Structures are given as structure tokens and as C-alpha cells.
């Protein structure tokens, strides 16, 4: 059992190292969103803040789904054939895949609604919101 666990850990660390070394070029083309910070302070208009917050939330949600998937996969690998642990790991992986589908669907629906309403992107949709001066 100890040799098997050592082989699993060695293989996982080798795969993780290889993924880490190639991730910069492989994931560089994938863009979840950009956060632009204006030169005169962070919140020059409400539209920029809403657009930036939505981009940050989508990126954090994608990261959370990915980490949950990795957690389930690690539990599956280390379950050692125990039926209860394997079932728990399978449930985590299933929940992560459902979360990924929900996240992708939410993004697709948002982009579809923006296109239907005539906007090109989030900055277009929320860019016209300005502060109301009451003086």
C-alpha cells in the first residue's frame, strides 16, 4: 500500500510540475475577462465597476469549480477501492461538472442577452452609467 501511494504521489507531482511549466503558454490564449483600472482612481463610473466585478466573479467561480474538480479527482485516486470514499469522490466530480455547465450557461445567457439588447460587451452595456450630481 505504501509503495502504491508513493507511486501515485510521485506521478501526480510529475504531472503537476509538467502542467505548471506548460500552463503559461497553454492557457495564455484563454481569456475569461479583463479588469481595467482607470488612471484617476478605481471607480470613475459605475459601469466600469460593474463590468470589472462581473469579470472577477466569473474568474473566481471558474477557479473554484476547477479546484473542486481536482479535489474530487484526488479523493478518487486515494480512495483505495473503498466504496464510500469512491462514491464521495464521484459526487464531488459530478457537482464540479454541473457547476462548470451552470457557469458556462450563465455566461452564454449573459452574452446572448447583451447581443439581443444591442451591446457588444459588458463595458458597452454599463459604460453609460454616470454619477448623478444633486447640487
Task: Describe the structure in your own words.
The protein is mainly α and 135 residues long. The chain has a domain at 45-126. It contains four helices and no strands. It has helices at residues 2-26, 46-77, 83-116, 122-126. α2 (46-77) packs antiparallel against α3 (83-116). The protein is elongated, with a radius of gyration of 21 Å. The N and C termini lie far apart (75 Å). The model is unreliable at 18-29 (pLDDT under 50).
Features:
135 residues; 4 helices; 71% helix; elongated; mainly alpha
Brief rundown of the structure:
The protein is an all-alpha fold and 135 residues long.
- Distance N to C terminus: 75 Å
Biggest sheet: strands, sense, closure? none
Residue stretches low in confidence (pLDDT < 50, at least 5 long) are 18-29
Radius of gyration: 21 Å
Shape: elongated
Portion in strands: under 5%
Put simply, the count of helices is: 4
Number of strands: 0
> Can you give the mean pLDDT?
75
* Share of helix, binned: over 70%
Q: Which structural class is indicated by helix and strand composition?
A: mainly alpha
| Helix-strand string | HHHH
Amino acid at each position: 500500500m505504501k509503495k502504491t501511494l508513493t507511486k501515485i504521489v510521485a506521478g501526480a507531482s510529475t504531472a503537476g510540475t509538467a502542467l505548471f511549466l506548460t500552463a503559461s503558454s497553454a492557457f495564455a490564449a484563454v481569456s475569461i475577462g479583463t479588469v481595467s483600472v482607470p488612471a484617476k482612481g478605481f471607480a470613475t463610473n459605475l459601469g466600469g465597476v460593474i463590468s470589472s466585478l462581473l469579470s472577477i466573479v466569473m474568474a473566481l467561480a471558474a477557479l473554484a469549480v476547477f479546484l473542486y474538480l481536482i479535489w474530487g479527482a484526488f479523493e478518487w485516486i486515494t480512495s483505495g477501492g473503498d466504496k464510500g470514499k469512491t462514491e464521495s469522490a464521484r459526487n464531488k466530480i459530478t457537482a464540479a461538472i454541473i457547476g462548470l455547465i451552470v457557469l458556462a450557461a450563465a455566461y452564454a445567457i449573459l452574452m446572448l442577452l447583451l447581443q439581443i439588447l444591442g451591446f457588444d460587451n459588458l463595458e458597452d452595456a454599463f459604460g453609460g452609467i454616470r454619477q448623478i450630481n444633486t447640487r
